[in-house]
């Protein structure tokens, strides 16, 4: 099941930890625009392409007033390695209990090669300064993701 959240909805607040074990809440970013992107797994080809595209365009995103937060079910330790390996300048959220995924409707049954499994729906939420969802990007182009956000 894909997310039921729509543009205009209030983005669900959450509390989780970042790559350094610090608490992170969406409400900490009130007054800033946020790119909240959910991706399946650290250091896999598509997720690396997506994260590196955001990294390479990070300055441009910041000039437009965006903070970038990545979310996956990987551990903080896995996130640290991913950040170090690819020099990612933004926060990654360790959602091991899937509470953030569940709040955003980005976790569910997927199918590949006829096999069903539970996983992350690669989805990006563009959130305004008031915490309202401006856009939901469900068909993420990993190598052109920034262009989808700033279009």
Automatic annotation (TrEMBL):
Active site (record annotation): 47
* EC number annotated for this UniProt entry: 1.11.1.24
Q: Enumerate the spans annotated as Thioredoxin domain.
A: 5-151
Q: Which GO molecular function, any one, fits this protein according to its record?
A: thioredoxin peroxidase activity
Is Oxidoreductase given among the entry's keywords?
A: yes
On the tree of life, the source organism's domain of life is Bacteria
Q: What does this protein do?
A: Thiol-specific peroxidase that catalyzes the reduction of hydrogen peroxide and organic hydroperoxides to water and alcohols, respectively. Plays a role in cell protection against oxidative stress by detoxifying peroxides and as sensor of hydrogen peroxide-mediated signaling events.
> What name goes with this protein?
thioredoxin-dependent peroxiredoxin
């Amino acid at each position: 099941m894909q997310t039921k959240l729509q543009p205009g909805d209030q983005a669900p607040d959450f509390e989780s930890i970042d790559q350094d074990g610090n608490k992170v809440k969406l409400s900490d970013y009130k007054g800033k625009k946020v790119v909240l992107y959910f991706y399946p797994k650290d250091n896999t080809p598509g997720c690396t392409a997506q994260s590196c595209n955001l990294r390479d365009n990070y300055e441009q995103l910041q000039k437009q007033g965006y903070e970038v937060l990545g979310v996956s079910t990987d551990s903080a330790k896995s996130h640290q390695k991913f950040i170090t390996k690819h020099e990612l300048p933004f926060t990654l959220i360790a959602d091991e209990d899937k509470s953030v995924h569940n709040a955003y409707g980005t976790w569910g049954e997927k199918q590949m090669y006829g096999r069903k499994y539970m996983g992350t729906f690669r989805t990006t939420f563009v959130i305004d300064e008031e915490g309202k969802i401006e856009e939901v990007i469900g068909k993420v182009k990993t190598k052109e993701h920034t262009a989808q956000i700033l279009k």
